[in-house]
Design brief:
CATH superfamily of the largest domain in chain B: MetI-like
Distance between the termini of chain B: 24 Å
Low-confidence stretches of chain A: 1-19
CATH architecture of the largest domain in chain B: Orthogonal Bundle
CATH superfamily of the largest domain in chain A: MetI-like
CATH topology of the largest domain in chain A: MetI-like fold
Helix content of chain B: over 70%
Mean pLDDT of chain B: 90
CATH architecture of the largest domain in chain A: Orthogonal Bundle
Order of helices and strands of chain B: HHHHHHHHHHHHHEEHH
Strand content of chain A: under 5%
Strand order of the largest sheet of chain B: 1-2
Largest sheet of chain B: 2 strands, antiparallel
Radius of gyration of chain B: 24 Å
Structural class of chain A: mainly alpha
Number of helices of chain A: 16
Distance between the termini of chain A: 46 Å
Shape of chain A: flat
Structural class of chain B: mainly alpha
Number of strands of chain B: 2
Number of helices of chain B: 15
Strand content of chain B: under 5%
Order of helices and strands of chain A: HHHHHHHHHHHHHHHH
Shape of chain B: globular
CATH class of the largest domain in chain B: Mainly Alpha
Largest sheet of chain A: none
Mean pLDDT of chain A: 88
Oligomer: heterodimer
Largest interface: A-B, 119 and 109 residues
Helix content of chain A: over 70%
Number of domains of chain B: 2
CATH class of the largest domain in chain A: Mainly Alpha
Chain lengths: ~325, ~280
């Protein structure tokens, strides 16, 4: 009987008569949960406990570490802004600072441009469209570490497949050391990041494209606009909101990237490709200087805050 | 969008060739994983032989992977960690998302903002102090170190996605049940939760792939070989100093990628919903 009732409820066909049995004997707890703010408190407790323990508390602890001289195995003392002073005098830190911005802006720009092209292509009707779209997302799905290892093998100093092709085609006469110097290695890092992140842009922009009303294009075409003009005057303005959100999300992730760089170059050669994340790891985990490391990863925060505040402002405004 | 085609040549230049290049570039590294994992060492480490195919495929790299490393154990760890942390995150995210979408209470708006902000806090910012926290709780080098920390980025995502999903379910359905005598909790559990199953599935698939792929926390919190996940194990145990065991490395990369690719292929649409839902304000 109870089961039948459940089923009816699930199907949305709620019986008019026949009260649910439990309700006839309300307990004190049941009555308490009838009040929405009490129920909300109960429902939010697990989330807030986990976020407080593993985000809020570590965040505060991180600020404390950043102003302390803590090393592994010894309690730290308060040293004020000493760690930040050391960072600003450290050429590797300054290089990492610069790299982080170069990496973020170049990679995001390429991802946006290529993602847009991919989205426009996928918006056509063609055979195997579903399979092509699904496989396009693969770089985004598989563990970044594992695909980055494949790239590292393709960039290998001796056995690089790119070198094999270029040598055999007669384009180059000696091997290119893809990860051999800082500039070249940064280029490779950006390439792999674009390869991995572009699908995210393509798929979200494609979702945006599918909401563009075809009538608008037809109207523009009748008025004599060519494909290029139709893109810039019709599609682009309509896509701008989603584009902005995707770019902000991607910028945060790219800015705070760790694994791709750590796997492909480990910050090398000669510490020329570190970003905030990898350098913080190097100092905190390998040199055991937790305070110094925390001050490096905290250096991410001002930029992060800026992007988050912009995003919140933007969401408020569009509401 | 209406798409008109010119002649076949024009269509090839503006459509088929760019699409082919894009798909080729996307899939090439995966082809490279496959071909490397089945080529014998004497071909892998030869600059003469054509690297694009092999006439002597071998399963030796896969054998090495299972015999010389604890790959099977890593696979089990990864599955266990991803499943449990996804479960925890879905549970928390479902309740929190419902509360924020449906219930009237004073702190709804600021709490929603707070959870959205934590969604944007990257692991890179927290891993050093979090290492201390994990140590203090006695969780270091146990699966629970990551099972309990992955939800920090999974719960905000699940909450955010399900909040959006609950907003699309008409309130009236629940109100009907209330009129017929269902309690507040019954209306939630029996009416709204079942209707949210597609949203839950989307959030779950996405969360599962995120925790399967996580690297930094696992690298910092798990140190002994038998506790590692696939991404960490393959990266740390098959690279010794400057020596890379490329055959087994690529075999491990391939086997570590296949499970997520399979899960994903069954739920592409749900995954895409989650991906696009994740960025919608």
């Amino acid at each position: 009987m109870q089961q039948a009732e459940d089923q009816e409820l699930r199907a949305g066909a709620v019986p008019i008569a026949g009260p649910i049995r439990e309700v006839s004997r309300p307990t004190r707890l049941g009555l308490l949960l009838e009040r929405e703010h009490v129920l909300a408190g109960v429902l939010l407790t697990p989330t807030l406990v986990i976020l407080a323990l593993f985000i809020a508390y570590p965040f505060l602890l991180g600020i404390w570490l950043a102003v302390s001289d803590k090393v592994v195995g010894r309690p730290g003392n308060f040293v004020g802004l000493e760690n930040f002073r050391v960072n600003l005098a450290d050429t590797i830190f300054l290089r990492a600072f610069q790299n982080t911005f170069v990496y973020t802006f170049l990679a995001t720009a390429f991802k946006l441009a290529l993602g847009m092209v991919a989205a426009l292509l996928l918006n056509h009707h063609f055979r195997f469209k579903r399979i092509v779209r699904a496989s396009m997302l693969l770089p985004w799905i598989v563990p970044t570490v594992l695909s980055t290892l494949a790239w590292q093998w393709m960039f290998d100093a001796t056995f690089s497949v790119f070198n094999w092709v270029l040598l055999n085609a007669g384009v180059i006469s000696s091997r290119i050391l893809w990860l051999g110097d800082g500039t070249m290695a940064m280029g490779c890092l950006i390439l792999v990041n674009v390869w991995r992140g572009m699908p995210f842009f393509a798929i979200t922009l494609l979702a945006g494209l599918q909401t563009v009303n075809p009538d608008l294009h037809e109207a523009a075409e009748i008025d004599g606009a060519n494909a290029w003009q139709r893109f810039w005057r019709v599609t682009f303005p309509l896509l701008k909101p989603i584009m902005l959100v995707v770019v902000l999300f991607s910028m945060i992730a790219t800015f705070a990237d760790f694994q791709l760089i750590y796997v492909l170059t480990r910050g090398g050669p000669y510490s020329s490709t570190h970003v905030f994340g990898t350098y913080a790891y190097e100092i905190a985990m390998r040199a055991a200087k937790l305070g110094q490391g925390a001050s490096i990863s905290l250096s991410l925060f001002p930029f992060l805050l800026l992007v988050i505040m912009f995003q919140l402002w933007y969401i408020r405004r569009s509401d | 969008m209406a798409v008109r085609y010119g002649g076949p040549l024009r269509r090839a230049v503006t459509f088929h060739i760019p699409l082919g290049l894009l798909v080729g570039a996307t899939l090439f590294p995966f082809y490279w994983m496959v071909i490397t994992s089945i080529r014998p060492d004497r071909e892998l480490y030869s600059v003469q032989s054509n690297p694009f195919f092999t006439l002597h495929p071998t399963v030796k790299h896969f054998q090495d992977l299972f015999e010389l490393t604890m790959f099977a154990r890593w696979a089990w760890n990864t599955l266990f960690i991803a499943t449990v942390s996804t479960g925890i995150s879905l549970f928390c995210g479902l309740l929190a998302g419902y509360a924020l979408a449906r219930l009237q209470f004073r702190w709804a708006a600021p709490l929603g903002t707070l959870i959205f902000v934590t969604y944007l806090v990257p692991p890179t910012l927290l891993f050093i102090p979090l290492g201390d926290v994990v140590q203090a709780f006695g969780l270091a080098d146990t699966p629970w170190a990551v099972i309990l920390t992955y939800p920090t980025f999974l719960i905000p995502f699940c909450t955010w996605l399900l909040l959006g999903y609950f907003k699309t379910i008409p309130k009236e359905i629940e109100e009907c049940a209330r009129i017929d005598g269902a309690s507040r909790v019954q209306a939630m559990v029996r009416i709204s939760f079942p209707l949210a199953v597609p949203g839950i599935l989307s959030a779950g698939i996405f969360a599962f792939t995120l925790s399967w792929n996580e690297f930094l926390y696992a690298l910092v919190f798990l140190s002994s070989p038998q506790q590692k996940t696939i991404p960490i194990g393959v990266f740390t145990e098959l690279v010794r100093g400057d020596v890379f065991y490329w055959g087994p490395l690529m075999a491990g990369a391939l086997l570590g990628s296949i499970p997520v690719a399979i899960v994903y292929s069954f739920f592409v649409e749900h995954y895409v919903t989650a991906l696009t839902g994740a960025v919608k304000g």
